[in-house]
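Task 17 of the worksheet. Students: predict the tertiary structure of the chain below and write it out as structure tokens. Keep your answer in the requested format; marks are given for formatting as well as content.
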Amino acid sequence: MEHSFKKILIANRGEIAVRIIRACQELGIKTVAIFSEADKTSRHVELADEAYCVGPASSIDSYLNIPNIISVAEISGADAIHPGYGFLSENVNFAEICESCHIKFIGPSTLSISSMGDKAKAREIMIKNKIPVVPGTGMIKDTSNISKILKKIGYPVIIKAALGGGGKGMRVVYNEKDLDNAINQAKMEARASFGNEAVYIEKYIEEPRHIEFQIIADSYGNVLYLPERDCSIQRRHQKLIEESPSSIISEKLRKKMGQVAVKVAKAIKYSTVGTVEFLLDKDEKFYFMEMNTRIQVEHPVSELVSGIDLIKEQILLAFGKKLEIKQSDIKINCHAMECRINAEDSDNNFLPSSGTIENVIFPGGMGVRIDSHIYSGYKVQPFYDSMLLKLLAFSKNRQETIKIMKRSLKELKIEGIKTTKEFHQRVMNNDNFKKGNITTNFIEKEFSE
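Model answer:
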């Protein structure tokens, strides 16, 4: 009996495309890369068994061009599509088209994507299933009665795009007089970013930790959670550094939050890998924030800590494999940390930096992992996400992991463009970071722009 797919098309680019190709090669599965005209010399194109151009440089004409991607899948004979993260990874329409063309979408069901993709709808499902959520409103259709509701909740509050992500369509409001203007701004940004201006409002939890749980679920009702990731180091709601386990989570709290993450997955009959995200306040109260129905950027952190290859699991689960491991099999094997090194000038308000990388020297040695698609001579395009690599350090405890990360950052050389390397070095040397005193406003407090 066949154990997996014969050929997988990777509907993505950059480091995640490289990561998926490597997993497929180890599973003995042929790979098909897609690329834009700007990406023809990209690493994923070279590594795949076949590669096809799907359009010009802009994402909308290439990596988001569903008809072209499906055509390539049919021409190449791919029996599955892995969307990675971003682009079409949570696009219900794309998942439905794959299904109608008898191509397996390596991700959750369309019902799961739509249930969790609409943040306001997701809140309603959580409330119905007695999952703790941050006090807030449903979708705002009429603002006439909203100030009364918000007085009850109490300021500050945060306005969020219902179909949002990546910090877009979000505004924190500290008093009533700023409310109308903030709602209008959030709606405009939501419409521009997601094509939908729907917003909702939640109580703004001040100085929380952003804690998330990687879950793995098969199509037989089995769901497991991996040790938590602490993603509190953020700038404008974009994660910069992730680590596992969190420096403040006890075994008791880990189990409690993990079990709630499993309950979330079961509430929507979820299967495949995914992430349940929580806000944790200073009193150890936690609230469901959202669920990401795709592989996350920071998945290697969980892979190092648990010893589980999440991309391989995702592929095999999509093929119908039953989970062979139990919750009791999952242990914390090390402390792992990830720095996202971006093509940005951290000394100039994180302005994007494009151009040719003249020279790259990656660090190595014990306790280091690099996930990247760049090389000496690689052209960093202005059209796409600015992430160049994920630098991971891991060791027996947090202190040792920080030492390895500092050493690795020092070894890392990327010449020809600006990067965020020096910013990460400053974080690693920060006393509060070293002590584990981190919240989602850490950057704001310690490195005021």
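Marker's comment: The first strand starts at residue 7 and ends at 10. The chain has a mean pLDDT of 94.
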